[in-house]
Amino acid sequence: MNIRKYILHALLALLIAPWLSSCLGDNDSKYDYNAWKNENESYFIRMEDTIGVDNKKVFTKITPVWAPSVSILAQWHNDTTLTMKNLKPMDNSTVDVVYKGSYYNGVAFDSSYSEVDSVRTFTPSSLIVGFWTMLTNMHVGDSVTCVIPQNAGYGASSSSIMPYSTLVFNIKLKAIKAYEVPGK
Asked: Which of 3.10.50.40, 3.40.50.300, 3.40.50.2300, 3.40.50.10420 would CATH assign to domain 33-178?
């Protein structure tokens, strides 16, 4: 290698090293997520207080009995009087769901629509607390928009979701494939 290439590579390494080292290992704490966290928390509060054209709150606040410090918001898109006699899944049921997940700002991060038939199969208790809570409050055929704060989502750390993210899911409960009996 001639001397010019060596010097050029050395200078390039010096310029890139600080940036590269911040991307490696456990240096995520150097990134200040305070602004992102505040934006996400503010979004959840705004959605909780949103009033519709009928002068009623758009979202229903749901707090599971088993997690009293956690609340999610749900907006049903169907006439629930038509589905209220349908089954609701239990924690250990196996359900078919169609969904799209995005950050509060509309940027999508996951979707069942990438599947051939757009359906994914889950057990509610295997999911994040917010999604689990939503599924167990839906009847087969219900379609909702669910707003999940970070304490019911992925919290302060995740390998694929930004820390402190408020998540928005559009969910349709298609079927309960296996309705499990409690204690069995």
From this structure: 3.10.50.40
